Amino acid sequence: MLVLGLMSGTSADGIDVALARISGAPPKLKAKLLGHTSVKFPRAIRKEILYVAEQQSIPAGELSQLNFRLGEIFATAALAACRKFRVSPSHISLIGSHGQTIFHQGKPVNFLGSPAASTLQIGEPAVIAARTGITTVGDFRPADIALGGQGAPLVPYADYLLYRHPKLGRVSLNLGGIANITVIPAAAKPSQVFAFDTGPANMLIDALVAHFSKGLLRFDKNAELASQGRSNAALINELMRDPYLKLRPPKSTGREHYGQAYLKKLLNLGRRHRAKPNDLIRAATVFTPLSVIDALNRFVFPKAKIHQLVVSGGGAHNPLILAQLAATLPNIEVLPSSRLGVPEDAKEAFAFALLAYETFHNRPSNLPSATGARGPAILGKISYAPPR
Length: 388
Ligand SMILES: Nc1ncnc2c1ncn2[C@@H]1O[C@H](COP(=O)(O)OP(=O)(O)O)[C@@H](O)[C@H]1O
Ligand SMILES: [Mg+2]
What we know:
single chain; alpha/beta; 7-stranded mixed β-sheet; 12 strands; about 25% strand; binds magnesium ion
């Protein structure tokens, strides 16, 4: 089957599209990435997504409109990718679309008198199926939450298929808005794989850069600003006291914790420590690898021998993050995922192509050891293409 995966993460920077050829079934499933591309969101759309994801209130009608508009935008991205890959959409069997997360509460909290967990990804799959003529799987997370899981992370299933190794223990690290790891011990069975969000990856850096540049810059390309800042150990130590780091996995986080309110805290912290803007950007940048390493030390190394750390996501292009990881983990090989054949910017989109393929074949693809669900779940909802 040719399958397209569409991914837009918490950074809301745009849509990553991956084209994969997938055949067979686990443990003999075969998946090959044939191409990948990405499409930026129009400015006004990105602004609206961030507004909603920061839990600012909008009328229900506006949310409904945004859901359908995003469906159109995802469909356009899928069709543009087909042109780029020179494949007719009629040759593509399936799309897996993660959608845009606008709310994620993985652990139950009190809601109107009883506990509730929930998650909401928008970008209407029915619109994607209608525009592209390709059956589309979307809404992957709710089925896991319905079984008591956190609905995240879901990429570990793909990590397991792509990275498991008979002799090498591997950790897959994705640096999107949030940083998450999947631990795949050597020769692991699926039940031995575990995964969780370690904390922020690019979200705080992006927020600081947008703040100090008054919206002119969206991110710190190649850590240019952070590299001009001075390292401030006291400030970084204070960041490392973030209570999220100590929470035991399974755990997941997002803009609800590391959004605008956290940015305010960071700016206050910066003032108290007399940090210049670039010093603060540097501290937020270094916070990412240090919190990943903290998570490895606390929750991973006591349980599994790790040989390689495989890094993907936009943050894999940040040289300061990579250098810090390599310097602090001398006994572990830190390598970009492209070295294992999966381009950094295609990993998650590729994963959702795989998850869609599994769903289409009625197979579960959550890993209960990663999400905390009571058992396996067949993820997602299928929007069928109109009859040809
Ligand atoms: N060359 C680069 N240098 C530094 N950071 C980068 C670079 N390219 C991408 N990024 C970071 O990666 C982020 C996007 O990563 P991505 O994996 O798409 O995250 P998400 O899944 O949250 O959308 C950007 O917002 C930016 O912070
Ligand atoms: Mg992205």
